[in-house]
Structure formats: C-alpha cells, structure tokens
TrEMBL record:
Pfam families linked to this entry: rve_2
GO molecular function: nucleic acid binding
Top-level taxonomic group: Bacteria
Protein name per Swiss-Prot or TrEMBL: Integrase-like protein
Domain Integrase catalytic span(s) in chain numbering: 24-80
Biological process, per Gene Ontology: DNA integration
InterPro entries: Integrase_cat-core, RNaseH-like_sf, RNaseH_sf, Transposase_IS3/IS150/IS904
Length: 88
C-alpha cells in the first residue's frame, strides 16, 4: 500500500526511544496519568477520558520544559503574538 501511494515508511530504529523522544515522553506521561490503574468499560469511555486529559489538562495546564515552562496553549499564543509583529 505504501509503494502504491509512493509513501515512505518512517519508523524509529528498533529499541531506540531517542529517535522520537517527544512522542515517547508524551505517551509516557499519558499512560502515567490516564492509562495505568484505569479500567474503561467501553472504548468510548476511554476516548472521552483521553480527549479530556489532552484538551483540558495537557494542552491548557501542564507546563512543558521544552516550551519555556509554558503550557502548549500559552506557548502557541505567545508564538502567534510574535508572528503578528513580523513582516514577509
């Protein structure tokens, strides 16, 4: 299927979490806060819990060292304000 669409598969090297450290860090945090010690009765219940965690906590509240200790939403707002002052 990939060849048919001229797509190239992109994967980390086997056993090397450093190839995609940002994603690895996100999923570690997600599992620690939501997945471990949780039992979901339905897939929909799990989806709602994941959505709420990401949208109400991870993006709005949780501060990230890579963003200068701002939440992702605050970092994006700051970035957009900086872009308003630039010219093309």
């Amino acid at each position: 299927a990939l060849r048919q669409h001229r797509a190239i598969q992109s994967m980390s090297r086997k056993g090397n979490c450093w190839d995609n450290a940002v994603a690895e860090s996100f999923f570690h945090t997600l599992k620690a806060h939501i997945v471990h010690d949780s039992v979901f009765k339905t897939r929909k219940e799990a989806n709602v819990a994941l959505f709420e965690y990401i949208e109400t906590y991870y993006n709005r509240v949780r501060r990230h060292s890579a963003n200068g200790w701002l939440s992702p939403n605050a970092f994006m707002q700051k970035h957009l304000l900086l872009l308003e002052g630039t010219t093309v």
